[in-house]
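[audit] Reproducing an earlier prediction to check determinism. Same input, same settings, fresh worker. If the tokens differ from the archived copy the diff job will pick it up downstream; this log only records the rerun itself.
[audit] input (153 residues):
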Amino acid sequence: MTTLTSSSALDLERQVCFAMVLASRGIVQAYRPVLEPMGLTHPQHLVMLALWQHAPLSLSRIAHLLQLDPGTVSPLLKRLEAAGLVERTRTPGDERTLSVTLTDTGLALRSQAEQVPEQMTARLGLSQQDLEQLHTLMTRVVAAAERANRLEG
């Protein structure tokens, strides 16, 4: 039986991909108790953020903004519509395009959502500066991954 040496470039703890998966899972879990009183899951919150910023939006535009497949966004929209937060309608003149608008209830929820960033900063115990630096670095990582994936594709 061969014993592998520690502090190898292959050590699990040294892998960026592993750290990112753990961070993503942990962040989504940390959001749960903050979003629960609003009746939102983390993915639904992301949809609502896109709508609060840009509504009305087509389903395909929401999918593009969130970098998700439209087939993933559609069930989220159905649940948000069932909760009375959004309304989905066919675009006049183009029945293939689904337009998503906020209801009055969805618009009103924004005031509660405006407290989420401050609550999350407190929950994480990180400074606003740390979070901004992390966001900048993560944006660079996303762009680098997109470039690498384009080269492969």
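[audit] rerun output stored. Observation attached for the diff report: The beta strands are 57-58, 86-91, 94-102.
[audit] end
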